[in-house]
Structures are given as structure tokens and as C-alpha cells.
Amino acid sequence: MDEQHGTTREESGDEAAFRDRVRDWLRDNAPRARDPEGPADPVAEAKDFQARLFDAGLAGLTWPREYGGQGLDNRYRRIFEEEAAAYPLPTSIFLIGFGMCGPTILEHGTEEQKKRYLPPMLRGDELWCQMFSEPGAGSDVAGLQSRAVAIDDGWLLNGQKVWTSGAHYCDFGLVIARTDPDKPKHRGITMFIIDMHADGVVIRPLRQITGEANFNEVFFEDVHLPADDLVGAVDDGWRASITTLMNERVSIGSAGGDRDPIEPFVAAVHDLGLTDDGATRERIAELYVRQRVLRYLGMRLKESLRAGVSPGPLGSVAKLQGSTISQLSSALGVDLHGLDAVSWSAQGDDEDRWAQAVLSSPGSVIAGGTSDIMRNIIGERVLGLPKEPQVDRDVPFREITVGTQR
Predict the structure, then answer these.
(1) Which regions of 27-171 does DSSP assign to beta strands (E)?
(2) Which terminus, N or C, of the chain has the lesser number of Cβ atoms within 10 Å?
């Protein structure tokens, strides 16, 4: 079944053979169920699994062969995702590297950077993060104040980033910094690759309401950035940043479409004797429709990227849809389970499912760009509404009052 076009299509011999190979490999290598206690070392587990996936020729299916990928088209990626859907693969920590940093280096990096960084990224030997957000900039990414100053053999970076996912276990990252404060804020920014273990990089985890610490604040104190680690052109980092942000929204939206939020609600309705409750059935139906729409949006986004076509505002549509599904799901879970949704014991595989959903859903509205920002993008680029006033867009950055800059 070709779900993208709604037609039935027989698989070719190569595709059928690939499906058999994927099915056999997953049967022998993929975890069957998620351990409720979690692995002793989730990073080590993920890296080990990704290395085996890479060595089997099943990682980076659509990435170019010369950079560690398989050079296949999206039909093979879809086959892999269909077969992998039954397994809780420990690959979420690679989302930023594969979905954001890798595509940015592929588009804006030098040949040397692609050959140096992409193969070990795909194998899981080196983990990546991206550092854009700053405490004083909020949703205005271009209002950043971290500063990179040119020196004889590269650059010196000083400043601070915040909400950096996975910085505490990552090896490299993409960072943007201001390199010319005399230019307007969007035109004086440069992107760099940074070694997260370099002298002067200080990482401090941020404790979340869920009790986890997946995010970090990162400080840079005279961090040396070699000249070879410049991504794109000096002062043209905003263009590279748009590539990263676009792929971030595509990654978040596409990942959301792979999940099925309906099954636990259907089970709960049967357990609670609410199968004839029209209002509850309607809410579940809405979730089902939204999830299916998101799934097809994700497929279209991936096809566009593979074809070299910018998905444009479609990534924002998918990201907004995913955030909405997260909010609707957590609200329905609480309404169905009452106090049981926000209190649990340490026993049982899924005892904390609903409490975690309630606590984590607000973050989905912020991650990857707030829902209000997504609506602005959709309004301007899809609906043709006038842009928000931007009185500082053409003003030299050093003349703007922003964050701690006065």
C-alpha cells in the first residue's frame, strides 16, 4: 500500500528483499519491550544499538554513501519504519543529530566537515546537540548576544545558551554567535561546530517538572573555535540557522506522526464502561483524525526533503499539530482517570503514563518554536496575512535594547 498516494503498489523484488532483511535483523537485535526501570546506561545502550544498525547497513538509509549513508530513496526508509514500529528502539537521543545537525552540515558544511563528522554521527559514535536559545532572547533567536571574536587561528566564543537538549552527553554541537554587532541582528550571526568537551565549555543540567534533567544551560568562557569549524560564511549564520530550525520542526512533526495515541484511550474507555459516552468517543475520534493527518504530513515532509525541495511552512503546520495532539491527549487522560492520572505507585509498567503526559505536554508547546510562533509563520506564509511589525530588523544590533544589552 502506497499510503502517500492512497494507491496499492506491489513492492519490487529489491524492496521485498530489503523488508525481509530489516525484519530479520530487528527480530535478532531490537528490544522487544521497554524496561520500566530503564537501562542502567541509556546513552551506552543507544550507542551500541546504533553502531550495530550502522554496521548492518541500515543507518542513514537516504544519506549519501560517501558520508556513511546508504544512498537509498524514501521507499526503503518507509519500509524500515513500518517494520521498526513494533519495537521500542533506543534511538531518540540521535534525533537532533540526524534530524537537525546532520542536514545542516550536508547543506552548508564543507566537504571536509561532511567526511569528518557525518559517518561517526550516523554510527552513533559521536552525539550532537544544537545551541540557539539564550536567556535574554526568548523566541527572538536572532536577538542572541553570545559573541565570537576572530583571532589568528580561529575564533574566541563567550556567552550563554539555554534549553540545550542532551548537552550533558553530547560530543559536538552547532552553535550560533554574533560576529558583527554593527550589522542588523539577522545579518551579523555566524554558525560554528563546537567540541562540547573543549576548555571553557561549562554545562549545567536544568531539572524539569517531570523530575528529569534532559535540558541544560551552557556557558562559553573564551572557548577556542578552529577556523575549520565555521559552517557556511561569516555573518551568514542566519541562513544556516533557518535550515536547522526547519529540519527541527520537520523532525518533531514527523516523529509525532509515528506515534499512535489512541490505543490507551480505547482500552481505558472499555475498562471504565464509557463505550457509549458520545462526548468521550468524539474526543478520541478527534485525536485519531489529528494523528493520521500528522502522519501524512510527516510523510510529505520527508519526501520533500529527500527530493531537495524546501518544505517551507509545512514543518510549522506539523509541529503545531503535534503540540496540539500532546495537549489534547494529556487533558483526555486526566478527565478519564481522575486522581489516578496524577498519582501513582512505583509498581507497574505504565503507572506514571498519565502523570508524565500532564507534566511534559506544556513543554511540547515550546520545544522547536512556540505554538504562537508557528501560528505567525502559518498566518504569514500560508494565509498571506501581514507580518508582525519589526522595527528593529534593519537597525545595527549594538543599537538595540535586548536582553542584558542596554
Answers:
(1) 128-131, 147-151, 154-162
(2) C
| Catalytic residue chosen out of the listed positions 15, 221, 248, 282 | 248
User: Is the CATH number of domain 128-239 2.40.110.10?
Assistant: yes
Same fold, 128-239 and 241-381: no
- Check the CA dihedral 211-138-245-44 and report its sign: negative
Distance CA 288, CA 300 (A): 19
368 or 257, which is more confident? 368
d(Cα 277, Cα 265) in Å, to the nearest integer? 13
CA dist., res. 160 & res. 158, Å (int) = 7
User: Where do the H-state alpha helices sit in 204-262?
Assistant: 237-257
CATH top class, domain 241-381: mainly alpha
Kindly state the average pLDDT of the residues 156-168. Answer: 95
For 136-161, b where at least 16 C-beta lie within 10 A, e where not — what string?
A: ebeeebbbbbbebeeeeebbbbbbbb
Contact 233, 188 (CB under 8 A): no
Query: Could you tell me the maximum CA-CA distance found in the chain, to the nearest angstrom?
Result: 73
Contacts of 45 (CB under 8 A, 6+ apart): 39, 90
Amino acid found at 20: D
Domain positions in the chain are: 13-123, 128-239, 241-381
pLDDT digits (tens, 9 = 90+) for 186-236: 999 999 999 999 999 999 999 888 778 888 999 999 999 999 999 999 999
Amino acid at 367: A
pLDDT in tens, 287-314: 999 998 988 888 887 777 667 677 778 8
Euclidean distance between CA atoms 142 and 188, whole angstroms: 9
DSSP H or E run through 317: helix 314-337
- List residues bridging with 42 in a β-sheet: none
pTM: 0.86
Residue 8's pLDDT band (boundaries 50, 70, 90)? very low
Q: Which CATH class is domain 13-123?
A: mainly alpha
Lowest-pLDDT choice from 27-36, 60-69, 140-149, 161-170: 27-36
134 catalytic, yes or no?
Answer: no
Q: What stretches of 63-214 show up as alpha helix (H) in DSSP?
A: 74-84, 95-96, 102-108, 111-123
- Whose CA is closest to 59, among 87, 85, 84? 84
